[in-house]
Amino acid sequence: ETNDFSKLHSWISTALELDPDHRFDSAVEALEAFGQAAKADSWNSEVITELESYGVTAASVFELMAKYPMSQPLVDTTEKVMWRSSSDLGDCVVKLWKSSCWNSLEDDALRILRHLNYLDSIKASDLHFLPSILSVHWLGDHMGFVQEWIDGQTLSVTLAEGAMHDRSLETLMAELVESIEQLHERGLSHGDLKPANILLPADKGKCLKLIDIADFGHIDDGEKKSSAYCIDGQDTFARDRYAIAKIILEIAALMEVGPTQERILAEIQKVLDEPEKIISLNDIKEIVFQDENQQ
Asked: Quick check: helix, strand or coil at residue 13?
C-alpha cells in the first residue's frame, strides 16, 4: 500500500546508495531531484504559468527574429544560437539556448525558470560592468535574452598580444576587483571568470565588461567552468575570487619591470600557493591598491 511519502522512495534510495557512482553528483542535483519528487500535482502548472510570463513580448524564435533581425550570425550549435542584430533599436546580441539543454519541460521546468529569473535579476541590477540585458525570453523550444552589443576585444586576446594599448594595467586590475566585489555584494556571481569572459570595450572611456555571466547547459554536463581558473570543490563565489588572483597575475606580467610589478607578482603568487586558504577579495584589494594607499 502506498502512502503520502511514496514519491520520495526513489530519491531516498539514490541518496543512501552505497556506491558513490550511483548517488547524486552534487547537492544541487539532489535538491532539484527532491523538488521534482515532492512537488504537488499543481506545482508544474504554476511553474509553467511563470515561464509563460517570459513569453509575452515574443512567443517564438520567428517573432523574436522579426523584432531583432539577424545582421551577423555568431554561434549556432546543438545547444545554442547567437546573432547580432542591427536595427532602429540599435545594435544588440540575441542569445538563445535550445531545448537540447533540457530533458523535458516536466523534468526541467523549475531549472529553466530559475535561470530565467536569474537573467531577470541581472537585467534589474543595472551594474555598469555588465552589458545591459534588454529583455528575457521563454519561447517554448528556446530560452534566452537580448543584450546590448559592445565593440571591443576580450582580455584573452590582449594577453596573447603581450601588450595593453591605451589602457592602464593598474586601472584594469582595479576595475576587475571592484566589479567582482560589487557583483558579490548583490548576491550574484560569475562562476566561470576567465580572460575570454572579460571584454575590453573599444571605447576607452568605458570600463571592462564581464560577459557570459549566465550560461546554461544540460544537467548531465555539470557546471561550466574553466579548470585553469578554479579549484575543484569551490562554489561560484570562491571560483570568482580564485580566478581574479590568477588573472591579475597574468595582467601584472605585462607591467613595466620594477618594484611594483615584482611585489604584485610575488604577493599574488603567494596567495595562490596556499590552496587550503580561502582567498578573500580584501587580500587581493590590499595587494592591488597597496601603492595607492601608501601615497
From this structure: helix
- Nearest CA-CA partner of 172 in 124, 204, 139: 204
184/188 Cα distance (integer angstroms): 5
Measured in degrees and rounded to the nearest 5, phi and psi for residue 216 equal -150, 145
Question: How many Cβ atoms are within 10 Å of 32's Cβ, its own excluded?
Answer: 18
Mean pLDDT per 10-residue section of the chain, whose length is 295 residues: 59 78 74 68 73 90 93 94 87 94 84 91 90 94 94 92 81 92 90 93 90 81 71 85 93 89 90 78 85 55
d(CA 103, CA 101): 7
Q: Taking the CA atoms of 177, 180, 182 and 184 in sequence, report the sign of the dihedral they define.
A: negative
Tell me the three cell numbers of residue 16: 543512501
Give the integer Cα–Cα distance in Å for 284 and 295: 18
- Residue 140 in grid coordinates: 517554448
Task: Give yes or no for a contact between 198 and 247, defined as CB atoms under 8 angstroms apart.
Answer: yes
User: How many Cα atoms sit within 13 Å of 109 on the Cβ side?
Assistant: 16
